[in-house]
Target: 3-hydroxybutyryl-CoA dehydrogenase
Amino acid sequence: MARVGVVGCGQMGAGIAEVCARSGLDVKVAETTGEALELGRTRLTNSLGKAAERGKMTEEERDATLARLSFTTDLGEFADRDLVIEAVVENEQVKTEIFQVLDQVVTRPDAILASNTSSIPLVKLAVATSRPDRVIGIHFFNPAPVQELVELIPALTTGEETIKRAQALVGKVLGKHAIRAQDRSGFVVNALLIPYLLSAIRMFESGIASREDIDNGMEMGCAHPMGPLKLADLIGLDTVASVADSMYAEYKEPLYAAPPLLQRMVDAGRLGRKTGSGFYTY
Ligand SMILES: CC(=O)CC(=O)SCCNC(=O)CCNC(=O)[C@H](O)C(C)(C)COP(=O)(O)OP(=O)(O)OC[C@H]1O[C@@H](n2cnc3c(N)ncnc32)[C@H](O)[C@@H]1OP(=O)(O)O
Ligand SMILES: NC(=O)C1=CN([C@@H]2O[C@H](COP(=O)(O)OP(=O)(O)OC[C@H]3O[C@@H](n4cnc5c(N)ncnc54)[C@H](OP(=O)(O)O)[C@@H]3O)[C@@H](O)[C@H]2O)C=CC1
Model:
């Protein structure tokens, strides 16, 4: 799998593209507009600069990584890709439409179409294509260049060969640790993490403690690298709400229901770090 396509260059798309290019793969990244592409390119270049500054790679390696990356606003340029990883907004309709387009444009018969979705059932994306045996969830964690884990989520339709190839890519090529989960909304990590984040938001909303005390509680009391409200801001409050909605739709359990404050913050465009304001100001 030498040629990879990444759709979406937001925080996850940029991180996934960086991870793949750092592992020696030829990576093409697609965004909808030139403006979004420039933002994504800057995000990626800054992250590589930080990696070089922190001694995670040499300046030569950084430049070689950048040389393996190309950018486009035309998904038609993905014809020769061996693997495409979709990382656009957590919206089933948008993702389904992208899978339909990818199915048309990616011409290699053995090419795999993967999604970085956090919660949308993979089978829904698989059946939108003519190759449901070659669709799989490859779910990275934020920030992708730093977190070691990747969840592999085969849909009911995914073939064994696709699972084997995805597993080899994640472990041998990208050097990440893969865990397998069934195609149930939230998989392993978000099924545990999202109710925790929602509980913290409910705790804040009901005035039990300040945002700082909630976050310090989990950072200093449980050695989490960041407290739940800071983490929700890192993930993006729109994404947290969408993941909660998908999980609520799947399980109908109150613990997955997005609290009103989360919904109002999304309505207000306070999405966390990516918009400069969420539970904190950045
Ligand atoms: C929603 C979903 O579907 C799933 C999800 O992703 S849920 C979210 C999962 N993510 C988390 O839980 C994040 C929790 N937070 C953390 O892990 C940390 O706070 C953090 C990594 C985000 C930032 O940590 P920090 O210590 O404040 O930042 P920073 O010092 O810049 O970086 C931490 C390490 O990563 C390295 N790093 C940072 N950027 C890097 C890059 N682009 N490339 C390589 N390494 C990098 C740093 O060098 C540092 O490594 P050392 O400890 O060896 O020096
Ligand atoms: N945030 C996180 O911590 C994690 C998120 N995920 C998953 O990764 C995916 C992306 O999340 P994240 O990167 O955080 O979100 P962001 O909001 O940072 O980025 C989403 C990107 O998708 C782009 N986009 C939207 N529609 C299209 C389209 N039709 N074609 C191409 N690009 C498009 C957006 O561009 P524009 O701004 O121009 O609309 C934006 O750049 C989601 O499925 C999410 O659930 C998985 C793991 C962790």
Remarks:
- The mean pLDDT is 97.
- Residues 3-180 form a domain with the Rossmann fold fold (CATH 3.40.50.720).
- The chain has two domains: 3-180, 191-274.
